[in-house]
Amino acid sequence: MEQQIRTLTARLLASRSLPRTDPLVRRALVDEAFRVDLDARLSAVGLQLIDNPYAAHVAVALADDVHEPVFGASREYAASNVGLTRDQLALLVVIWALIVLPKRERQINRQKLADDGQGDMFGKDAPLAHGEEVAGALSEASLLADFAPVLGHKTYVQGKLLSRLAQLGFIERRGGMIHEGPLLDVLLDYRLMADRIIYGTLGEVLSEAGHPPPAQDAFSAPEPDADADPDDLTD
């Protein structure tokens, strides 16, 4: 087990994220003793495993108690610990809201991307889905048309903003479409982000347009049952 933990730790540090379907990652998610040893190994160097059961990947991040010692001396840390500028952060939040919010609703309802919810008597009992069967993609041209005038201009958004988000692993750009990257869902706190967007910014926009905001529990992702079969939380 020691060698497997050593291997998994090294791979996480080298790759920043790994898919939940990876054999060693799956072991860390279902084997309590293995997870305890992995957490101890990461904690010894100021890191922690980030595991969101709704996300298709796991990642490593700094432990909470070392954020200030590591980033406190940098002015960039006030906005982002990966050095994102304000316009990059703004575009990241927009993309997160357009991809992750509807994806989470489909996951909660055990509904795939092309499914209208009809004809599946046992859909609510299906394993939690990940990947492109629930995550939609954005047209890059449409995103540029809507937000490039606000964030600068088309060339700037493509060359400086989208390229940086792709480089960091938040998004993937393929064939003119923007897809969810391995870090988009796992590193951004859904509960915090969803509340601020749906009942804050989006709620104000809807109210000004004369529409009531969404119901308080419309996008609430419940915590997974601690006694649930771990296989129900992974592909």
Automatic annotation (TrEMBL):
<protein>
    <recommendedName>
        <fullName>DUF4194 domain-containing protein</fullName>
    </recommendedName>
</protein>
<feature type="compositionally biased region" description="Acidic residues">
    <location>
        <begin position="224"/>
        <end position="235"/>
    </location>
</feature>
<feature type="region of interest" description="Disordered">
    <location>
        <begin position="209"/>
        <end position="235"/>
    </location>
</feature>
